[in-house]
Design a protein that fits this description.
Elements lengths: L1 H26 L6 H22 E2 L2 E2 L3 H20 L5 H17 L2
Antiparallel strand pairs: 1-2
Helix pairs in contact: 1-2, 1-4, 2-3, 3-4
Length: 108
């Protein structure tokens, strides 16, 4: 139950980040990414907690296909997020956030 709540909260955070990013790009292509990074960081944390709750079971790890795909998408988004802290990668956020939201939805 907690994993579902965290997963849906992560999806909501990713969608808020995607809508915010598209609105900012329409206004000005050169915007300050701090608020986008904050929203993305919240989404990554929520998704990480949801994945941890789903992967860790009493007998060990549950490594089913969709859970591994969601974990892989999380790792890719963390890499984009960390490398975006040093240089602007705003266009990659559009792809990464949308892909992560889809993977989080598919694991339901």
């Amino acid at each position: 139950m907690t994993g579902s709540i965290l997963g849906f909260a992560a999806i909501a955070a990713y969608m808020v980040g995607l809508v915010y990013h598209l609105m900012q790009l329409r206004k000005d292509p050169h915007f300050n990414p701090i608020s986008l990074q904050t929203i993305t960081g919240i989404g990554i944390c929520l998704h990480g907690l949801a994945i941890a709750g789903l992967l860790l079971v009493e007998g060990g790890l549950d490594l089913s296909l969709f859970k591994i795909l969601a974990l892989l998408a999380l790792v890719i988004n963390v890499l984009v997020f960390v490398s975006g802290l040093k240089k602007p990668l705003h266009s990659l956020y559009l792809v990464a956030i949308a892909a992560l939201a889809l993977c989080a939805y598919w694991r339901r």
